[in-house]
Amino acid sequence: MIKPTIQPYKRPCAISEYPVGPSFKAGHLVSGNSNYRTSRPVISDAACIGCLFCYAACPDGAIFRNEKKVRVDYDFCKGCGICARECKVGAIAMVKEE
Amino acid sequence: MQQRLFLSGNEAIALGVKLSRPHVIAAYPITPQTVAVERLAEMMQSGDLDAEYLHVESEHSALSAMMGASAVGARTFTATSSQGLIYMAECLHYASGGRFPIVMMNANRALALPWSIYGDQRDSLSLLDCGWIQVYAEDAQESLDLVIQAYRIAEDKRVLTPVMINLDGFVLTHTYEPVLVPDQVEVDSFLPSYDNPYAMNLDNPKNVGFSSTPQDTMEFKYQQHAAMLDAKDIIREVDAAFGTCLGRRYGGLVSNYWTEDADCILITLGSIAGTVRTVVDELRDHGFRAGLCRIRYMRPFPEDEIAELARPGRAIGVLEKDISFGFEGTVFTNVNSALMKAGMQVPVLNFIAGLGGRSISRGDIREAFTDLEKARTGESVRNVRFVNLGVAT
Known about the structure:
The structure holds two protein chains of two kinds. By secondary structure, chain A is an alpha+beta fold. Chain A is built from two helices and five strands; from the N terminus they run E-E-H-E-E-H-E. The longest helix of chain A has 5 residues, at about 55. Chain B folds into two domains: about 5-245, Thiamin diphosphate (ThDP)-binding fold, Pyr/PP domains (Rossmann fold, 3-Layer(aba) Sandwich); about 255-385, Rossmann fold. Chain B is α/β, with parallel strands linked by helices. At the A-B interface, strand 1 of A face strand 9 and helix 9 of B.
């Protein structure tokens, strides 16, 4: 449930500054991948009961919990809407991206 | 103290693996590799080998499991052949790109169709570009020694590249010969335990095998290429260190026999080199200056060693169990490129032989040397010739 977020990193200036093989500390050398989303899930904290059905259903692992509140990582959420569909209390609304 | 045992190539591989103390083994049985993995399973059963042995449903899964184990710092082994190797093709690139120092045995066998279980080298040579170090053993002794050396090469921090050890199917995997087997103390003194500074563990969580954009991918590929080029020195170092510790040296990337004053040199790889060596002896007895260059490592390619062979007045042939349809043998292409880059213009001939287990006789090799002598003295000879084709073309 704890989700690493994208960490800023210094652009490598030499081959030796790259990790050996594409394995690196979580969150580094990663770029956001969601700018084709047509609508975004918005969670109502008042309605959310914290059951985490949405977390279990999210195909991108984009849902996490921060200070007991359920949140969406919009850098990776593709806007598929599965979380909104699965939410048992209707706490997630899909809002059109402008 | 080395013990002299009567072993097949497969059994020599299994003993080499046991002595290298792997943590995880996963392999799917396939003729003619089966005996190697059966022996390892028996060692597990008897308690002689302390490792995890995973049952997998395919070669693709076997190598995938090795990558997972390698990522957390385990020493790993798998083995395959032919159709199994090409079924692994996707994972081969993954393993080398991920810089997982996996060691794998491949029993060289023909590719379908027509379906055939017999030996040739079209399986591994068609995967030269998968980023693995590729080495070809001549006999069971070298097979055993190569396993132990392969771990030291693959796990070297300057290399971190997987190694594929190729044995000719049946000719080498199933033939028995006396093999000197080192004891565990000797091997332990040569091969340190695996220490990967990049391993993933609970204290060091990682993204393993992430994707990359055009901004970085080329740098990762350059890094792989540079490590493979650096591996040449490490291969030579390991060959020398093995000689010091265990008393056998093989010559690094190539193994030459009577090349120094030769007029005609035949380049080949794998077990057929033994037959070529006896023909070189015969020809030398009759005053014909023949020589043999056995390529041990196809990747990294022994470019300098090949270029050194080319001298004015000499002819060079490549005998290989391979054909790249519509062109020539792949080993021949590689040899020619090395000669061309070195600016050496000598007559070069390609002998395609032994496809699908067709035997290669001493007579066939004598004929190849006769062709080379003709080419050397300016006679016109067919550049790419299928040896011992049973019918007229």
